[in-house]
Structures are given as structure tokens and as C-alpha cells.
Automatic annotation (TrEMBL), chain A:
Subcellular location: Cell membrane
Family: Belongs to the binding-protein-dependent transport system permease family.
Principal subcellular localization: membrane
Membrane-spanning intervals of the chain: 27-48, 60-83, 89-112, 153-175, 195-218
Identification of the protein by name: Methionine ABC transporter permease
Gene3D superfamilies associated with the record: MetI-like
Organism of derivation: Chitinimonas viridis
TrEMBL record, chain B:
Keywords in alphabetical order: Amino-acid transport, ATP-binding, Cell membrane, Membrane, Nucleotide-binding, Translocase, Transport
UniProt key word Lipoprotein: no
Keyword Oxidoreductase: no
Domain ABC transporter: 2-242
Pfam families assigned to the protein according to its UniProt record, in alphabetical order: ABC_tran, NIL
GO molecular function, one term: ATP binding
UniProt-recorded name of the protein: ATP-binding cassette domain-containing protein
Entry-linked Gene3D superfamilies: 3.30.70.260, P-loop containing nucleotide triphosphate hydrolases
PANTHER family from the UniProt entry: AMINO ACID IMPORT ATP-BINDING PROTEIN, METHIONINE IMPORT ATP-BINDING PROTEIN METN
InterPro entries reported for this sequence: AAA+_ATPase, ABC_transporter-like_ATP-bd, ABC_transporter-like_CS, ACT-like_dom_sf, MetN_ABC, MetN_ABC_transporter-like, NIL_domain, P-loop_NTPase
Length: 224, 335
């Protein structure tokens, strides 16, 4: 009788548990900071855009270029390039903590672009009507634009969260840990296909849950 | 009272200069419903938006009750805008807010009332526009006419002295249009506020406006009382707008009535003259039959009018004198 295809006894479930927790920690922390940083950036990008409230072509072009530059950088490179910055920010360049700054720098420009396009989906008539009611720019943003764009912003957050999950897989390069790292080190480099299967399934579950939660929030926020 | 002095506005479109407004001079009396009519692209939308400075004119002054709006700073402009309500063709309601919350939005931005005073004001406005039942619904659940009622209630929330209507009925069906126009008329009469509306439909102007200005190619080509402009349009653009409405006897008859013997006259009856048997009396007086060829009767706001094109065999000047003595305007038309 041939050996079974998979030998599940090889799996160290404690490792899988730790890795899952690491992934979730990196995801939670980096998503929080990505939103805190990317949302104002996206709003600014929108406001500076052509025919918008604070239209300013040179400022828009500059900001747009910086965002594009960051977005075109492969994440693996960003992880390494940012090491000195990471050390300054969190005191270490390795482990889960060391992975969070590069994750934020990698995802925030992406999220900012999604925020910009979600805001562009809001009918300009609503901006005009709010302006005609004597609103300040801050009131237009906080009372009309952001609440009206909420379904789009939630969808953008969901997409960003899923992207961050795949970024965390690369954090193994700097010893960041997490499910992706486990998959590469055990599943790929040590030919432990069982670990590969379990980590991939765990990642799938994380992504699936994120997407479902995101879709549910978007549905709840939509009034159209 | 609104006065526009020498307003000019040009746009840059693909490197070309496009004139949107050209030397606009306009006086809008307080308490009236003032219509600005023109085709799309004539500049009426830009003109309306200069009144609350959503469009800033390149030159000229916008005086609202003697205050030059173009000279105000940002804070002054916001205060002014709160005293000017605006209603839009596509309603521009906030989708994430209920009907009541959309109306409260204008009050929240102004920040002058506490929450119980806001609730009371919202209830009052809902009753005014007849939407008390729909207070907790979202805009997506409303019909077009209901959405526009919310738009009107929101525009009235801060008790403005001026209401701007940007094609407020153009997205509505004819029946709903009539209901919304009646609501605007009612508001004008009950609250005494000035309404400036822009439209491309003469029927809207005829239904509720007191005065009208015709805009064409960025210029005001004609203005006056609705009765004057509607029954005796002087400019080609005005004549076209009136003709499209199909409710005045101004159609070009040349070539169609060549078989009619005699002279063609256009008779215009307004107010009391519409109730008198004028045609029969004049026919008897002149001892010559009057042949009615074309005509229309109707109402301009609440004034009855009639306009007829008649054929007459006999003395035109005697007929004109006879009609004039009965308060009927009589013009000889080139046959």
C-alpha cells in the first residue's frame, strides 16, 4: 500500500496558531494606520483635482506623482528600503512590529487612490447643493462627501485589507512571521506540502471572512 | 430686490474662449416670481448661479438688497448663501439621509438652532410640502415629485428671502410639474419670498411667473411682464420660445392663408376684455364680417387672455379704433 498523500501528523498546530495570530496582528495594525493616513491623503487628492473645491494643478500633479512612485515600488523592495525608517519608528526592523511600517507605506497610497475614486463617485450636484447652503469646505467633506461615499469607502477598505493580507506573506523576508511566511519556509523551502495546504486554507479563510464582512457593511451602508 | 450690473463671464474650453454671460443687466423686484428662459447653452444656468456666487462673474456686480455679493469675503458669502435657498433639477438630496434628515441638514450647517428647535422646524417644513408621512424614508424610496418637495423644504429651511430654482420641474412628468409649480406659487404668496427660476419651457413661465427675461447667447434679449413677452414677443429667440409652447397665436401664417380675402389682424385680449362679445360687436359696428382663422385662449398665471388671428374685409384703421376702444390690442399682419 502506498503512503498517504498527506501526513497531517507532521503539522505543528501551535505554529499555525501563532502564524495566524501574527497575520491578524499585522493586518489589524497596518489597516488601521493605512486608513488613518490614506483617508486624509485621498480626500486631499480629490479636493485638489481638476474642477474640485481646492483645484490646484501643480499640487495635484506633485501629490499624484508621489503616490504613483510609492505604488510602483514592489513591496519586497519597499520592505528593505524602509528598514532605517522602520527602526526609527518602532525601534526594530524585524518581526511583526517591523513589518507594520512598510505595510502601511505600501498600502496607504493604494488606499488613497481608492478613496479619491470613491469620492469622485459622489454626484457633484450634492457638493454644489451643500455649497449653496453656505457650508464650509470642511463641512462639505465631513458632512456630505464622506457620508455619501461611505459604501465606496467601506469597499475600498475591504479591498485594501485583502491586499494587506497578501503583503504580509512577504514579511517573512524581514522575519515578520505570519501565515504566508510559514507557507514559504515550511511548505515551499522544506517541502512540507501539508503546511502549505493548511496555511493556504487559513489565508483563504481570512480573506473570505474579510470580504464577506466588507460586503455586509457595504450593503448596510447603501441607501440607493 | 436683486440688481445685476454689467455681468460678464467667459470660460476657457479646450483653449477657446466661450462667452457665457455678456453684459447682463437685470433688476428683479422683491416678492415676485421672476423667470429666466432660454435654450440649453444660452447661459441661464450660469446666470442663476451668479446670484449666490456659485459662479463668480469675471466683471460686474451682484447686488442683493443693496449688498454687493461679489465683494464679500468667504464668511460673508456663506452667511449670504444661507439666506438664499436653491432647488435643483436633479434634486441633489443626500442618499444616506432620510427625508427629515435631509431637511435638517440645512439647519445643521447653519448651526443656529438646538436639536429640539430643529426637529420642530423640520416638522413644520414637512407639513408645508406635504411629506409628513414620508419623514423617515430615504430619497431612493421617493418619486421624483416627492424628491423635489424635499428639495424645496430643504431650500426653505433657513427662512431665506430668495429662492433660486434651477430647472426645478424639468425632470418631472407634466402632472407632477403642475403640482410643484403650484407649491412654488403657494410659497411665494404665503411667505412673500422672491423666486428666481430658470427654465427652457414657456409653459412654466406662463404658469407662475410675474416677469420674464429671455436669454440667448449669453445676453438678455428681452424682458418684461409675462403677458407682454408672451403675447407680443419682439426678439426672434422669444418668438421661438413662445411658438414652441403652442399656446399663442403667433405662428407664421405666410403662404398658408393666401386664399383668404381681406386683411389679417391679430387681436389680443387680456383680463376683462376676454369676457366681452367684442368680435360680434365690432363686426356689427363695421357692418363687415370678421373671420376667425386661428387663435388660442388660456391663462397667464391668473390672468385670462385670448389671442386671435382674424380676416377682415373693410377698413383696417376703423377696425383698429373699434377694437382699441374695447380694450383689445389689434395689429395688422402682413398677409
Amino acid at each position: 500500500m502506498s503512503a498517504p498523500l498527506f501526513d497531517w501528523s507532521l503539522i505543528d498546530w501551535a505554529d499555525i496558531g501563532t502564524a495566524t495570530l501574527d497575520t491578524l496582528t499585522m493586518l489589524g495594525a497596518s489597516l488601521t494606520f493605512t486608513v488613518l493616513l490614506g483617508l486624509p491623503l485621498g480626500v486631499l487628492l480629490y479636493l485638489l483635482g481638476p474642477r474640485r473645491l481646492l483645484a490646484n494643478q501643480p499640487a495635484y500633479a506633485t501629490l499624484s506623482f508621489v503616490i504613483n512612485a510609492l505604488r510602483s515600488m514592489p513591496f519586497v523592495i519597499l520592505l528593505i528600503v524602509l528598514i532605517p525608517v522602520t527602526v526609527k519608528l518602532v525601534g526594530t526592523s524585524i518581526g511583526v512590529a517591523g513589518a507594520i511600517p512598510p505595510l502601511v507605506v505600501g498600502a496607504a497610497p493604494f488606499f488613497a487612490r481608492l478613496v479619491e475614486s470613491a469620492l469622485r463617485e459622489v454626484d457633484l450636484g450634492i457638493v454644489e447643493a451643500t455649497q449653496a447652503m453656505g457650508a464650509t469646505t470642511w463641512q462639505i467633506v465631513s458632512r456630505a462627501l464622506l457620508p455619501e461615499a461611505l459604501p465606496g469607502l467601506l469597499a475600498a477598505t475591504t479591498v485594501t485589507a485583502v491586499t494587506l493580507v497578501s503583503y504580509t506573506a512577504m514579511s517573512g523576508v524581514i522575519g515578520g512571521g505570519g501565515l504566508g511566511d510559514l507557507a514559504i519556509r515550511y511548505g515551499y523551502q522544506r517541502f512540507q506540502t501539508e503546511v502549505m495546504v493548511i496555511t493556504v486554507l487559513a489565508l483563504l479563510a481570512v480573506v473570505q471572512i474579510l470580504q464577506m464582512a466588507g460586503d455586509w457593511l457595504v450593503r448596510r451602508a447603501t441607501r440607493k | 430686490m436683486i440688481e445685476l450690473h454689467h455681468l460678464n463671464k467667459t470660460y476657457q474650453v479646450d483653449g477657446r474662449q466661450v462667452t457665457a454671460l455678456q453684459d447682463i443687466q437685470l433688476q428683479i423686484p422683491a416678492g415676485q416670481i421672476f423667470g429666466i428662459i432660454g435654450r440649453s447653452g444660452a447661459g441661464k444656468s450660469t446666470l442663476l448661479r451668479t446670484l449666490n456666487l456659485l459662479e463668480r462673474p469675471d466683471q460686474g456686480r451682484v447686488l442683493i438688497d443693496g449688498i454687493d455679493a461679489t465683494a464679500l469675503d468667504q464668511a460673508g458669502l456663506r452667511t449670504l448663501r444661507r439666506q438664499i435657498g436653491m432647488v435643483f433639477q436633479h434634486f441633489n438630496l443626500l442618499a444616506h439621509r432620510t427625508v427629515a434628515a435631509n431637511i435638517r441638514f440645512a439647519l445643521e450647517l447653519a448651526g443656529e438652532l438646538d436639536s429640539s428647535a430643529m426637529a420642530a422646524r423640520v416638522a413644520e417644513l414637512l407639513a408645508l410640502v406635504g411629506l409628513t408621512e414620508q419623514a423617515q424614508q430615504y430619497p431612493a424610496q421617493l418619486s421624483g415629485g416627492q424628491k423635489q418637495r424635499v428639495g424645496i423644504a430643504r431650500a426653505l429651511a433657513n427662512q431665506p428671502k430668495l429662492l433660486l430654482c434651477d430647472e426645478a420641474t424639468s425632470a418631472l412628468d407634466p402632472q407632477t410639474t403642475q403640482a410643484i409649480l403650484q407649491l412654488l406659487l403657494d410659497i411665494n404668496q404665503r411667505l412673500g419670498l422672491t423666486i428666481v427660476l430658470i427654465t427652457h419651457e414657456m409653459a412654466v413661465v406662463r404658469a407662475i411667473c410675474d416677469r420674464v427675461a429671455v436669454i440667448d447667447g449669453g445676453s438678455i434679449v428681452e424682458q418684461g411682464t409675462v403677458a407682454d413677452v408672451f403675447l407680443h414677443p419682439q426678439h426672434a429667440a422669444s418668438r421661438n420660445m413662445v411658438a414652441e409652447d403652442g399656446h399663442a397665436a403667433v405662428l407664421d401664417l405666410a403662404g398658408k392663408l393666401h386664399s383668404v380675402a381681406g386683411k389679417l389682424l391679430r387681436l389680443t385680449f387680456v383680463d376683462a376684455a376676454t369676457y366681452e362679445p367684442v368680435i360680434a360687436e365690432v363686426g356689427q359696428q363695421l357692418a363687415s364680417p370678421i373671420n376667425i382663422l386661428q387663435g388660442s385662449v388660456g391663462r397667464i398665471k391668473d390672468r385670462p387672455y385670448g389671442q386671435l388671428i382674424v380676416g377682415l374685409q373693410g377698413d383696417v384703421s376703423a377696425a383698429q379704433a373699434a377694437f382699441a376702444s374695447r380694450g383689445v390690442r389689434c395689429e395688422a399682419l402682413a398677409a
